[in-house]
Amino acid sequence: MSAKIISGNEIAKQIREELKADVENLQKKHNIQPGLVTILVGGNPASVSYVTAKQKTSKDLGFYSIQNDQQADIAESDLLKLISTYNKDPKIHGILVQLPLPKHINENKVLYAIDPDKDVDGFHPVNVGRLMIGEARFYPCTPYGIQQLLIRSGTKIEGAEVVVVGRSNIVGKPIAMMLVQKKDGANATVTICHTKTKDMKTHTLRGDILIVAAGAPKSVTADMVKPGAVVIDVGVNRVGMTPEGKAILQGDVDFEEVKDTASAITPVPGGVGPMTITMLMLNTVRAAKMAAGIG
After folding, report:
1. Does the structure show a pLDDT above 70 at 30?
2. For the segment 232-289, what is each residue's pLDDT rounded down to a tens digit?
3. Is 1 a residue whose pLDDT tops 90?
4. 208 is annotated as an active-site residue
5. Equal CATH topology for 31-117 and 141-272
6. CATH for 31-117, among 2.60.120.280, 3.10.25.10, 3.40.50.300, 3.40.50.10860?
7. Binning pLDDT at 50, 70 and 90, where does residue 154 land?
8. Average pLDDT score over residue span 113-131
9. What residue spans define the domains of the chain?
């Protein structure tokens, strides 16, 4: 029997409808409009696409939105001044600097310059530390999306064996920390695998939930998956182009093989991807409430 498809498109739509109602309520009852600024340095086509999607979503939800485009040769000091301006702007509740940045700019210095209470990406060390000790204000957007996919698809997380393939600061480490916490939607036993793991298959076969963020197409095959496991594929790899010039995307999981072994699986595209922007919006609404002392 083929696995149930966990649709990120459908779950993201559901969350956005909830957020839209929340934003309307904030405006009517408290005269608060969540504010998000996206800062784009240079014209990297992928970055332009991501920022455009984020801006469109924020406007659709009723946010106060600013897209601030800067030339690729902007001085690091000028970018830091720009961030400082938005840190002080009461209309802005969330600041997002689109990565990657040009090589002459220290990305860590830029990310650390963002006020932790406006760090809706969840990358500032203060927010990473809060996540670690179970007092997170903002969860990093992709891991947050993964957790919501699991919760809203009815996946039992508490007591589950979760295996994470990948140890990045953006996905692998934070999702492991989130699912191991003593909280609802967590309380799992978590194993992290990576490029230096010996006999990875031994670990992945234990996973009731398998989260794959390896960055390599079809790196997880059916023989590596426990029968009946829930598989979350975080990978988005461009493996070719259609005759019409559209990118062909492939996940880190061999979907066609694994869908007959897993009980549930996310597709690529249409799985984790749509959730990331949605959770950015949720974090921005949360930041607006925090700034107003609501909730």
Report:
1. yes
2. 999 988 888 888 888 888 999 999 999 999 999 999 999 999 999 999 999 999 999 9
3. no
4. no
5. yes
6. 3.40.50.10860
7. very high
8. 97
9. 31-117, 141-272
Tokens for 165? 């393939």
From the candidates 22, 55, 98, 250, give the one annotated as an active-site residue.
98
Q: Output the 3-class SS for 7-68.
A: CHHHHHHHHHHHHHHHHHHHHHHHCCCCEEEEEEECCCHHHHHHHHHHHHHHHHCCCEEEEE
Active-site annotation holds for 121:
yes
- 22, 117, 119, 121: the active-site residue: 121
Highest CATH level, class, for 141-272: alpha beta
Catalytic residue chosen out of the listed positions 54, 173, 218, 259: 54
Is 153 a residue whose pLDDT tops 70? yes
Whether 98 is catalytic: yes
DSSP-derived secondary structure for the chain: -PPEE--HHHHHHHHHHHHHHHHHHHHHHH----EEEEEEES--HHHHHHHHHHHHHHHHTT-EEEEEEE-TT--HHHHHHHHHHHHH-TT--EEEEPSPPPTTS-HHHHHHHS-GGG-TT--SHHHHHHHHTT--SS--HHHHHHHHHHHHTT---TT-EEEEE---TTTHHHHHHHHHSSSTT---EEEEE-TT-SSHHHHHTT-SEEEE--SSTT-B-GGGS-TT-EEEE---EEEEE-TTSPEEEE-SB-HHHHTTT-SEE--SSSSSHHHHHHHHHHHHHHHHHHHHT--
